[in-house]
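Two quick folds needed for the group meeting slides. Do the first one here.
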Amino acid sequence: MPNRHKPSRAFSFFVFSACLGAFLLASVSFAAVPVPKPPANDARAYVLVDFQSGRVLAAHQADVQSEPASITKLMTAYVAFDALREKRLTLNEEVLVSEYAWRTGGAASGGSTTFLEVNSRVPVEVLIRGMIVQSGNDATIALAEKLGGTEDSFVQIMNEYARRLGMKNTNFENSWGGPGPRHYSSAMDLATLSRALIRDFPDHYRYYSERDFTWNKHKQANRNGLLARDPSVDGIKTGHTQSAGYGLASSAQRNGMRLICVVLGTGGFKAREDASAALLNYGFTFFETTKVRTVSDVVLKPEVYKGEEEMVALVPARDIWVTVGRGGVPGLKTSATFNGPIVAPVTRGQTLGEITVTDGKDVVARVPLVAQAAVPEGGWWTRMVDGIALWME
C-alpha cells in the first residue's frame, strides 16, 4: 500500500513563504529619467504604444471614432495574410481583375492605383504589394473579391475580424478606405490592428518596408516617407482623403524595442511624418521595455491534493513584457499567488494563480499563472489521506 509522505501545513507554508520571498525582487533606490509630456502636433488623434507590452505611452483622442482612409487596408491585408496562413490562398495564385475593381480603384477613379487592367489575371503577391506599397485601391478590391466573392461580403469578414481583435470603435464599409457614414475606426483600434498584424504575420510584414513597386511599367514609391527618413522605421501604412486629412500608422524598432504610432487627421503628408517621428523618438528616449518572465519560468510550486505528484509547477501564461520610464527597470517588483487548495486532477495550462508586476507605485502587468504539466489523480490511499487533510483545513 503506498505510503505517501505529506509535509505539515506549517512546514508547507514556511517553504512557500521562503520561495515567494526569494522570488520577490529586492527594493532598491533608483532614479528613472523624468518623463515629459508628449511632443505637440496638429493631429486630431494619436496614440503611441509599445509593441511587446501593449502599454500606451502617449495618446490624444485615441478612442474617438475617426475616418481611417487607406489605413483601412491594414485590415484587408490582415484577412489576406490569414488566408495565406490557412492555405486558402497562395501567393502565386492568379486573380481576375473585375470591371468593378478596375473602375472603382483604377487610374480613372483618381485615387491610388496599381494600374491593373480590367479582365487581366494578376498573382496574389502582386495584389498584396500593390495594396501595401502603392496603396492601390484596385489591387485591394481585387483581393477583397477573391476572398469574399464580393466586396460587400468581404467587408462583413473585415468587421468580424475587427470584433475578434477587440477593435471597439471600428466599422468598415469598404475594403480600401473610401469615406462613408459608417466607415470609421480610432487611433487606438488601428494601433491594435497594427500590433496584431506584426505579431501574427511577421513573415508577411516585410512587405511594409518596401520602398517602391513596379507593375505594368508604372514604378511608384511607398507613400510612407518615414522609411527614407529613419532606418529604424519598417512600416506601416499611410492614409488620406479630403475629409480624413493625412494619417499614418508607423512602426520602428531600436535596440530590440518596437513602438507603434498612429496619427490621424494632420494637415499634410509632412505633418503626419513629423508628428510620427517626434512621437517615436519620444517613446524611445524616455521609455524602455524589458522581459520580466518567460512562459518557461517556474514561478511557484504549490502543493497538490489527491494527485500523483505532490506539487505542480506554475508558469506565466505568456511572456511578461513591461514598459517603464527609462531607468525604472531596477525598481520593478513581482509577487505571485495561487488559488488554493489545489486538488487533482490538474490539466496542463489550467489557470491556478496570478503574477503581478509593479513599478513601486502602480501595477504594470498582471498575468495568469498556469500549470506547466498535468497532474492526474493519485491512488485511493492518497485521495483518502488528502481528503482527510482537506477536511481538517
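Then this one, please, same format:
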Amino acid sequence: MSITMQNGSVQAQTSVAARGLVLAYGVLAYLVFFGTFLYAVGFISQLVVPKTIDSGATGSILQAFAVNLALMSLFAVQHSGMARQGFKKLFTRLASPALERSTYVLLASLTLILLFWQWQPITTVVWNIETPVLAYAAIAGSFIGWLIVLYSTFLISHFELFGLTQVVTHFVGRIAEPMKFKTPGLYRLIRHPIYLGFIVAFWSAPIMTLGHLLFAVVTTAYIFVGIWLEERDLVAMFGDQYRLYRQKVAMLIPSLF
C-alpha cells in the first residue's frame, strides 16, 4: 500500500512538473512575441530601436532586394504553413495540443527577429512629406494602425490568440474549450481589423524609401493571400455561420470591400 501511494505521489509530482514546463514554455513564447511586436513598431516607425527599416550599411540594390524578399518569403511560409489545419493536426500527434499555438507564436517571432536583424536597407526616397502637419498625421496614422492591431487581438481573446490561455488551462488540468465564432466591436464593421491595422501602420510613413515600399507592398500582398487562406479555414470550421458573416460584413473597409 505504501509503495502504491509513493508511486502515485511521484507520478503526480511528475505530471505537475511537466505541466509547469508547458506553462513556462508558453509564457516564454508570449514574452518573445510581445518584445518582437514592440520592436516591430520601432523598426517600421524608425523610433527608439537600434536597427530600423532604413538604418544600417547600404550595398547593392539587387542584393538588398533578393535578401529582403527571401526574409519576407521565409516568414510567409512559416506563418501561413503552421496556421493551416493540416499542420496543427500533425503537430498534436507529436506533442501536447497545449503547445501548438505557443510554438507557432514563438517561431513566427523568431522569424521576424531574423528579418529585423538581416534586413538590408534601400534608402532611395520614393516620397517625402515636408509639410509638418501632414508628416505628423502620417506618423499618427502609423501608431493608430498598431493600436488597431493590438486592440483587435483583445476583442477576440488576445491571450488565446497568442497561446497563454491554452498553457494555463493545461496547467490547471482542464480541457480548453473549442474556438467559438464571435464578432465583437470592430468585427461587426470589418472581418479583418488586425490586417487593416497592419496595412495602415506599414503605409503611413512621412518618408517612404524604396526598402520601406518593398516591405509595404510585399506584406500587403501577403495579407490578401493570408485572408484567402484564413477564410477558407474559417468556412471549413464554422460553415454557413461564417459564409453569412462574409456576405454581410466587408473585408477591410466598411461598405466597400
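Slide caption for protein two: DSSP finds ten helices and two strands in the chain.
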